[in-house]
Amino acid sequence: MKAVVLGGYGLIGSAVMRALAGAGFAVTGMGRSAAAARRMGPGFDWIIRDIPSVDTPEWRDLLRDADVVVNAAGALQDGGRDDLSAIHEVAVKRITAALEGSATRVVQISAAGVSAHASTEFFRSKARGDAILQGSGLDHVILRPVLVIGPAAYGGTALLRAAAAIPFVGLQILPGAQVQTVALDDLARAVVLAAQGAIPSGTVADLTEDDSRSFPELVQTVRRWQGGSDPKLRLPLPGVLLKASSAVADLLGHLGWRSPLRSTAIRALSDGIAGDPGAWQAAGGFRCRSLDETLAALPATVQERWFARMFLLFPLLVLLLALFWSLSGAIGLIRFDAAVAVLTERGVATGLAQGAVALGALADLLLGLAVLSRRWLRPGLIGMITVSLGYLIFGTVLTPDIWADPLGPFVKVLPGIGLALVVLGLADDR
Questions:
Q1: Is 72 helix (H, G, I), strand (E, B) or coil?
Q2: Between 3.40.50.720, 3.30.70.1060, 3.40.640.10, 3.30.470.30, what CATH number should domain 2-300 receive?
Q3: Among positive and negative, which fits the CA dihedral 259, 130, 11, 222?
Q4: What value does the mean pLDDT take over residues 423-430?
Q5: Helices 263-271 & 121-134, crossing angle to 10 degrees?
Q6: InterPro entries from the xrefs (predicted)?
Q7: Counting runs of H as helices and runs of E as strands, what totals does the chain give?
Q8: Which residues are CB-contacts of 188 (< 8 A; sequence separation ≥ 6)?
């Protein structure tokens, strides 16, 4: 049987692809990033397309031979790279139209808590997409997982790990929020059962453990799993500070950053993440593992602890680079004559010195602004490293005595290169 997995290199999609392949399906993944696809599964077949932009005739061609279509594509919030209506509704409408009259089974991965009257557009748009599929007349199963816990971390699960890794302090974030979890492997296994036809068509079911816990209790459980000691100090996080963080995260979303602190994630968390396993078990499904059972099956290695710590530090490192380079460029323009004098006093022609200072200052300013955009982060970092090396090479040729300057302006370029290399090494978001 042939299965096509939309959003195949995502947290859920990648696990589903491996599980389906292990069950004997011929699996093809679909997503818009060829690089992410290669990293996730170089041995799989891939269709590289921007899912919301595919029209009905192309879907009909792409899915002609598919026995199962698994829709694991989704987005949390509108932003620079995402359009909720396009991915959750328009794409589903086109896919169902393309599959009209076929025997293809569609397995839709939705979310627990979706409804037309939910507090966020994420849940409302998901609900509208589910309704389109339910009204299509196609063979379908809709699975609605709660907070998914797996070996990979992305979005909310990355934030959870990072919150648990804060040293010494236990932040009491949204203490009234109740959260249930589901193991990523259980979700993938459920998709395989649905793809095999073991779950009746028309089933709409939450995938969740039986118990729930407060978000601070969840963070504490993950902290212990990571091997961390209990916090020395427990501090409540003021609601106003959380709202301010969400507002900043929303603004950064327009620059392509998919922060788990965006308002949709915080609102969903404050509302609680809960489901009812009854419909799933009534449809012939298995009991989903508890959080303790899920974590017991996942070793908390040094990679896990590194990721949790670096997830907290990564935005700070990007901000430091942006400030360093932007301020450097701005100061060069503001104190233009003084900067030119550094070169002319050493015998460099005035015109050449003015051109070098102006070009260098503008390059610094543009590179500092570039890394604030997710799309331009990697090119900006490479530019920073290249320009820094250029400064050292040409600076050594033109003004070698500056190496002996007691303030070390050339020497300080070296840790700047190192910082850019570190951020470049952490730049992948999947």
A1: coil
A2: 3.40.50.720
A3: positive
A4: 84
A5: 80
A6: ComplexI_NDUFA9_subunit, DoxX-like, NAD(P)-bd_dom, NAD(P)-bd_dom_sf
A7: 18, 13
A8: 12, 15, 16, 18, 19
Amino acid in position 166: I
Say how many C-beta atoms besides its own lie within 10 A of residue 419's C-beta: 18
What contacts 24+ positions apart, CB below 8 Å, involve 119-125? 119/267, 119/268, 119/271, 120/263, 120/264, 120/267, 120/268, 121/77, 121/78, 121/84, 121/264, 122/75, 122/76, 122/77, 122/84, 122/264, 122/268, 123/268, 125/84, 125/85, 125/88, 125/89
Contact at 8 Å (CB) between 360 and 391?
yes
Based on the number of CB atoms within 10 Å of its own CB, is 249 exposed (0-12), middle (13-18) or buried (19 or more)? buried
Q: For residue 430, is pLDDT > 70?
A: no
> What pLDDT sits at residue 233?
85
Report the predicted TM-score, pTM, of the whole model to 2 decimal places.
0.84
User: Is 202 exposed, middle or buried (CB count within 10 Å of its CB: 0-12, 13-18, 19+)?
Assistant: exposed
Sign of the torsion angle spanned by Cα atoms 116, 95, 133, 30:
negative
Helix orientation angle between 377-398 and 413-425, rounded to the nearest 10 degrees: 160
Instruction: Give SS3 for 183.
Output: strand
Name the residue ranges covered by the structural domains of the chain: 2-300, 315-425
Q: What residues are paired with 172 via a beta bridge? A: 236
Contact 308, 165 (CB under 8 A): yes
Question: pLDDT value at position 82?
Answer: 78
Give CA angle at 12 (289, 209), nearest 5°.
20
Six-digit token string for 374: 């997710």
Closest CA to 70 of 54, 86, 92: 92
Question: What is the helix (H) or strand (E) element at residue 297, kind and residue range?
Answer: none
The amino acid at 34: A
**Higher-pLDDT residue of 261, 121:** 121
Which bin fits 155, alpha (ψ -120 to 50), beta or left (φ > 0)?
left
